[in-house]
Amino acid sequence: MKSDPPPLAHFLTRFLLQPPAAGSQDLPQRQAAVLVPIIAHPEPTLLLTRRAATLRKHAGQVAFPGGMKDSSDTSLVATALREAQEEVAIPPAWVNVIGTLPPVTSSTGFQVTPVVGVLPPGLNWQANEGEVESIFEMPLEEALRLSRYSALDIQRYGRTHRVWLSWFDDYFIWGMTAGIIRQLSLQVAKH
To answer: What single-letter DSSP state applies at residue 73?
Structure first.
């Protein structure tokens, strides 16, 4: 009798078999990256943060660790790893980068590249209190369930934009973060 592969192995197989589609050429020049950290527990989880309420932009929002590309960053992967270390003390050497998702444009005009990486369980996260209010893990299986995301169409600058919304425990996940998780779900669900 054939048994199902472990959840993380199944996810990795689906992610690697479906390379991201080519992005649009009309993307902003200002670049940023976020790390989409998957923790390799027997039942994998997705690591997320709630941004500090004192931040000037996106205060209190659920997000992935990430930020703007610095001139010293050699790539957008390096940006995501540096930001994850600064925000939640994830050592770059412990991240197994498995790929990227297509870039998305943020409401503040950045081209943001989601970098998907697998981390071993047991790392001690530590929030940079100036940037991160809290750190939490969401079961990957739950995060990738498409039915958990609701669409909201909003008008901005005379154009309609679709925003995705979801709740997990006491965390409201919306906007770019929800859209990235939903895109990851679509990426691994393709046949």
So the answer is: -
CA–chain centroid gap for 145, Å, is: 15
The residues with which 39 forms a beta bridge, in sequence order, are: 45, 119
**Which parts of the chain register pLDDT below 50?**
24, 191
Q: What does the pLDDT look like over 143-180, one tens digit per residue?
A: 898 888 888 887 777 877 778 878 788 877 878 898 89
Domains, the chain, ordered by start: 30-140+157-186 (3.90.79.10)
**Is residue 24 classed as helix, strand or coil in its secondary structure?**
coil
The CA distance from 166 to 168, in Å, is: 7
Phi, psi of 165 (to 5 degrees): -130, 145
State how far the Cα of 11 lies from the Cα of 17, in Å rounded to an integer.
10
Task: Name the nearest CA neighbour of 130 among 31, 59, 179.
Answer: 59
